From TrEMBL:
Hydrolase recorded as keyword: yes
Species in which this protein is naturally found: Dactylosporangium fulvum
InterPro entries named among the record's database cross-references: NUDIX_hydrolase-like_dom_sf, NUDIX_hydrolase_dom
One Pfam family from the record: NUDIX
Protein name: NUDIX hydrolase
GO MF term list: hydrolase activity
Nudix hydrolase domain location: 39-174
Keyword list, A-Z: Hydrolase
Length: 196
């Protein structure tokens, strides 16, 4: 694509700790100017945690925006300044699933809703899984207080993704990506440090 899209103005409409809503005036290739609203997001990480039996750790979490309990990966915001992304993923795995992993790889990166947001989630594959000792577990609150951890065979999770049972975008990509990587002897994985 050789066309350029010049941003003529940028106005922030709302800001909170997770995102801001902005309006850009964009000069289109033909010269017309169009206003485009979108969300600027802090970014996120997600974890496809696989155990030695080939099962993936999925959580059930209520999401107010869709008013449903969804199948999801352990995931969360990049909201600790300077924290390496793989460390953020490890923190979320421990907080949401009470799990730790000895082996980490970068599985893929996803723009979740590029039509209205710049949100990008980095998905990590975590293996060599162990439980967080009970005395060291994170105390979950609000929607996270009701999180349910389920161990699902990876092939069953793929079926759930393709049948519409899993609708969370990061979970879909993570499950399908992990199955793809597994079927290729993990050759498609990248070092966890490649995540930016």
């Amino acid at each position: 694509m050789t066309n350029t899209y010049e941003v003529r103005s940028h106005v922030e409409r709302l800001r909170n700790r997770v995102f801001s809503i902005v309006t850009d005036e964009v000069v289109m290739p033909g010269g017309d100017v169009a206003a485009r609203d979108y969300m600027v997001h802090v970014g996120a990480v997600g974890v496809v945690a696989l155990d030695a039996d080939g099962r993936v750790a999925l959580v059930r979490q209520y999401r107010p925006a869709v008013q449903q309990v969804l199948w999801e990966l352990p995931a969360g915001l990049i909201d600790v300044p300077g924290e390496p992304l793989v460390d953020a993923a490890a923190r979320e795995l421990a907080e949401e699933a009470d799990l730790v992993a000895a082996r980490w790889d970068l599985l893929t990166e996803v723009h979740t809703t590029p039509g209205c947001s710049n949100e990008k989630i980095r998905l990590f594959l975590a293996r060599e899984i162990a439980s967080v000792p009970a005395e060291d577990r994170h105390e979950r609150t609000h929607e996270e207080a009701d999180l349910e951890l389920h161990w699902i065979d990876l092939d069953e999770a793929v079926r759930m993704a393709l049948s519409g049972e899993i609708t969370n975008a990061a979970c879909l990509v993570g499950v399908l990506g992990a199955a793809h990587a597994r079927d290729r002897g993990w050759s498609t994985l990248r070092p966890a440090s490649d995540a930016v």
